[in-house]
């Protein structure tokens, strides 16, 4: 196994992706895996109940600090994923990553380069990047 997990995973996807090699297939499979992630998270909330969602409009005073804002949004999710829900969501995220990497391969893009650029951008823009 290579020391670089991004490069190793990208090569693995390149080697083992047999079906769904067209751009349209890859995009539609990526969207499908996004839907499965949403469904698994919804089931963790509504069927299993290991986590609870308390989502509502958050009214923050003008004087709110970044810490206040983060705390307000962090308070919307309560509990922790149980091992079953965690495993299912991890599997769905893995499938999603597979198709993201397949798209990188189809477009001859390097996943590690993309991650490095995005990380650099987030660090440079800080909290302003994620608004």
Automatic annotation (TrEMBL):
Organism expressing this protein natively: Desulfonispora thiosulfatigenes DSM 11270
Protein name: DUF1573 domain-containing protein
Cross-referenced Gene3D superfamilies: MazG-like (1.10.287.1080)
Source species, domain of life: Bacteria
């Amino acid at each position: 196994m290579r020391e670089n997990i991004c490069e190793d995973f990208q090569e693995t996807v390149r080697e083992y992706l047999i079906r769904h090699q067209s751009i349209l297939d890859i995009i539609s499979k990526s969207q499908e895996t996004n839907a499965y992630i949403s469904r698994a998270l919804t089931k963790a909330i509504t069927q299993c109940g290991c986590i609870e969602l308390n989502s509502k409009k958050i009214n923050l005073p003008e004087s709110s600090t970044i810490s206040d804002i983060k705390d307000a949004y962090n308070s919307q999710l309560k509990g922790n994923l149980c091992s079953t829900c965690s495993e299912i969501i991890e599997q769905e995220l893995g499938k999603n990553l597979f198709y993201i990497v397949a798209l990188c391969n189809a477009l001859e893009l390097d996943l590690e380069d993309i991650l490095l650029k995005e990380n650099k951008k987030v660090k440079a823009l800080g909290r302003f990047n994620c608004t």
